[in-house]
Amino acid sequence: MSLNHILGVDHVVVAVRDLALSAKTWEELGFTVSPRGLHSSHMGSANHTIMLQDDYLELLGIVSDTDQNKPTRDFLTKHEGIERIAFTTDDAAAGAAEITARGFPAIGPVHFGRPVPLPGGGEADAKFNVFRWPLDEQPGGIRIFACQHLTRENVWIPVLQQHANSAVALRRVEILSADPQAAAAHLSQLIDEPAHQEGAVWRVASGRSRADILFYTAETFAERYPDAVREGAASQGVAALVLATRDLDAAATASGAIRHGEVASVPAARASGSVLSFVPA
Is there a domain that residue 1 lies in? Predict the structure, then answer.
């Protein structure tokens, strides 16, 4: 039985050391990047978002050391990149109780917010409740948590959803693991969604037609992406993020991506440590 309060991938968190530089880098890849948002003080972080139709990317930087952001700081001592996957929850308290009852004591819920500059002027508040799976539950080396949006209208702002590269949705999060089967089984247990084998690759659907999560060995990942694309990619954890675009030519032109088959991919070295790959919507 699937979890009642986990509704598919919501966003991915790209942890970066220089938030302003990273925002500029992602703009140069053809994305509309939101103005900087400063989280509540106990979070100690700031972000820029890249909003898609139903999901998004979050560029996250640390502004002050707190207990809440210690795992992110630890991650950044090694490298930048996709540090966490967030799932949508419709009720953070109920979702936290649900995973706790299944043997995974939830951290939270935690409430926080950030101001959002509005396109026509002025400011609104974006507010969230989040909970995390236990920190030692990291399938394929990736942390997971769930996010309840209390003010969606202040996050999914139409002007921020229009991108020169025509990106519209997260399609896949691709993770390197020495044992893809075990990593997929681990995630399957945590979110109560089945794992499926596709050759040497293992796939876990996140639910609600949101992004799938795939687990590769280094060898199968190398078969999928050319050497020039894999340059700068993490050796474990999230190695690629696949986005759907309405116009593959526009995506390749706006981002300077390398075409290989029916795919256009930006080298990981240009996308904060993970391959950024565009596929037709």
Answer: no
